[in-house]
Amino acid sequence: MLNIGDVLSARYEVIRVLGQGGMSNIYLCRDRHLAGKECVLKELTAKFSSTEEQALAQKQFELEAFLLAKLDHPNLPRVSDCFLFQGHPCLVMDYVEGEDLEKIVTRSPSGLPEKVVAEYAVQIATVLYYLHRQIPHPVIFRDLKPSNIMVSGGHVKLIDFGIARLYSPAKKGDTLRIGSPGYAPPEQYGGQTDPRSDIFSLGVVLHRLLTKSDPTSTQTPFSFVPVRKLNPAVSGKMEQIIIMATQADPARRYQSALDLKKDLLGLLQPPPAPPQTPLPPAKAGTPFPASGRKKFSPLRIFAWFRWVPYALLLLFLLFIFFYEYLFPLISKFYPALPTFFRQKGNIPFWF
User: Fold this and answer.
1) Cis peptide before 298 (omega within 30 of 0)
2) Burial status of residue 317 (CB atoms within 10 A of its CB: 0-12, 13-18, 19 or more)
């Protein structure tokens, strides 16, 4: 194991230990050739019982370096160097800041919100589809689990390609039967993995993030309690996505990460607004819109002024009728009326 302050290849100074495993140790280092830029150094440290096992492990380690060196995706770390140190293969890659999803879900009280999980899953499905579309051979990650998914500011990156492999249909099975119990699909223990194997693991990851149910401690491997029984807040659509992704038979799963991504995007997009029935066209000559609502228009006010002359003429005729015929008749019964009301000479006074 390396110590703090050790300098490898006259360039990489060890700052602290990031993680230790049965196969390798991970260190945070400072690159002296790049103004002290932080990077991650992975050292293969496993001890093997035979030279064949050691050769196979070193070959797998070199394959990881080869895979990452040729890949270029925003959801993957970038490899910058590979060398031997005291007989141990070492791999240098970008330092991915943030927390892994295992720590995040462990800290949560009852699982992560569905929207957050769906956003993470869309990014994971995107990078899986990128890996599975590599030419001439698809890259199978084979170890997808929350602790291998780093999150920083909502951005996801896959880490640890230690057991990734190139898929070839001509092969009858995997050379190494390795994987993380609970997350690895059935075919990873007795057959050949293919892109659908990563889809199974992603389905288990979604189940873990939404329910906090640990698949590594279950007594019934490859069988999962329905998500909504453990977390009723999860939508039925998300539950169906997980059920389809975690089918034991690869033929019944999503056949590509792109298909899974499309269903996840459907969860994030709001439902379309119901179609509105168009209003029937207004008939010719209709003064108001077909909806029946009157629209205010200043021109309508001026339209009423055409009736003013007729109204004045009517008032004049009524006055003449009242003065010439009704007023003399009324004056006979009410002699006390003022004199100027009874004399026709006062007509100009009223006008």
Assistant:
1) no
2) exposed
> Are 261 and 225 members of one domain?
yes
Distance, C-alpha 3 to centroid of its chain: 42
pLDDT digits (tens, 9 = 90+) for 18-40: 988 777 899 999 999 999 999 99
Q: Which residue has the tokens 């209003």?
A: 279
Q: Can you tell me whether residue 215 is helix, strand or coil?
A: helix
Is 180 part of any domain? yes
Distances (CA, A) of 84 to 87, 94, 108, 180: 6, 18, 41, 27
Give the span between the Cα atoms of 165 and 175, in whole angstroms.
9
Sign of torsion over alpha carbons 168, 170, 176, 181: positive
Gap between the Cα atoms of 180 and 97, Å rounded: 23
> Tell me, what CATH number does 154's domain have?
1.10.510.10
Which tokens is 234 given?
Answer: 């999860």
Within a domain: residue 85? Answer: yes
Cβ atoms of 138 and 132 closer than 8 Å: yes
Those residues whose C-beta lies under 8 Å from the C-beta of residue 188, and which sit 6 or more positions away, are 142, 174, 177, 179, 197
Residue 180, both tokens: 């993380």
| Contact by Cβ (8 Å): 147, 101 | yes
- The predicted model scores a pTM of 0.70
Q: Any idea what the CATH number is for the domain that residue 51 is in?
A: 3.30.200.20
| Closest by Cα among 156, 159, 76, 157 to 119 | 156
Same domain membership, residue 217 and residue 118: yes
> How many other C-beta atoms lie within 10 A of the C-beta of residue 64?
23
Cα separation, 186 vs 94, whole angstroms: 33
pLDDT in tens, 291-349: 555 566 666 666 767 778 888 888 888 888 777 776 676 666 666 555 555 555 554 44
Domain encompassing residue 217: 99-268
Number of helical H runs and strand E runs in the chain: 13, 11
